[in-house]
UniProtKB/TrEMBL annotation:
<keyword id="KW-0456">Lyase</keyword>
<dbReference type="InterPro" id="IPR029045">
    <property type="entry name" value="ClpP/crotonase-like_dom_sf"/>
</dbReference>
<dbReference type="InterPro" id="IPR001753">
    <property type="entry name" value="Enoyl-CoA_hydra/iso"/>
</dbReference>
<dbReference type="Pfam" id="PF00378">
    <property type="entry name" value="ECH_1"/>
</dbReference>
<protein>
    <submittedName>
        <fullName>Enoyl-CoA hydratase</fullName>
        <ecNumber>4.2.1.17</ecNumber>
    </submittedName>
</protein>
<dbReference type="GO" id="GO:0004300">
    <property type="term" value="F:enoyl-CoA hydratase activity"/>
</dbReference>
Length: 254
């Protein structure tokens, strides 16, 4: 059976699927390279405003392929990272639709997204210490920011795994979607819709500003960071058209 990354367009949303279900979507070097390229292709497509990453059921991603991992040194590890780091670096808004187990590097892939939705069978499993392996790929940095220091240490140092309900309670996922993988994907597409409908330049600029302001200690610096892109959007034809449309609707209601 062919192992591949499947890239589709659902309107203005790119859906990227790790499709290697016979070994639970674990990442080989080839799949990581394909994943990074699929993300790059989506970024270069001006009709794409958001990105959803998922895995063919039953798993989301079982981590790095163990054969690949066993023979890897620094260069090989960085090559494995490249797939999920492409998601983490993306200027597009990103959603991980996690329908099954996200293990090790697969948990990194989920963490790399801006937002995570879980299916009822989702499970978030660190597994690094179980393998006698130090975490990598920025796992500790991403996890502590996603769930806080105590929960991150429970998962990383004590091997605690989270099911869908516990992940939602910990803030690791936005919510759990009942149903099968198709229902989960539809929920991800619905979540992505406002970004898909908004002007692409504004969407990308807003995500860029959020990355900048997330580490700022002073409100005034955030105001200064946002003012230039806000003025640019204020002077855009998109804003003028949408403002006129909204004013017309308000006038009609009154």
């Amino acid at each position: 059976m062919t192992e591949r990354i499947v890239a589709e367009r659902r309107g203005r949303v790119a859906v990227i699927t790790v499709d290697a279900p016979q070994r639970r979507n674990s990442l080989t070097l080839a799949l990581s390279t394909e994943l990074a390229q699929a993300v790059a292709d989506a970024e270069q497509d001006r009709n794409v405003h958001a990105l959803v990453v998922t895995g063919t059921p039953p798993a989301f991603c079982a981590g790095a392929d163990l054969t690949t991992l066993g023979s890897a040194q620094e260069e090989g590890l960085r090559a494995v990272y490249e797939g999920f780091l492409a998601v983490a670096r993306s200027p597009l808004p990103t959603i991980a639709a996690v329908g099954g187990a996200a293990v090790g590097a697969g948990l990194n892939l989920a963490l790399a997204a801006d937002v995570r939705l879980a299916g009822p069978r989702a499970k978030f499993i660190p597994r690094f210490l179980e393998l006698g392996l130090h975490p990598g790929g920025g796992f500790t940095w991403m996890l502590q920011r996603a769930v806080g220091i105590q929960q991150a240490r429970a998962m990383t140092l004590f091997g605690q795994s989270l099911d869908a309900a516990a992940a939602e309670a910990a803030g690791l996922t936005l919510r759990t979607v009942d149903g099968d993988h198709d229902d989960l994907l539809e929920a991800a597409l619905e979540l992505a819709k406002p970004a898909a409908d908004a002007p692409r330049e504004v969407v990308l600029a807003t995500k860029f500003s959020m990355r900048q302001t997330s580490t700022m200690a002073e409100h005034s610096r955030a105001v200064d960071t946002e003012i230039e892109p806000q003025v640019k959007s204020l002077n855009s034809p998109d804003f003028a058209e949408r403002l006129a449309s909204m004013q017309a609707k308000i006038t009609t209601r009154n």
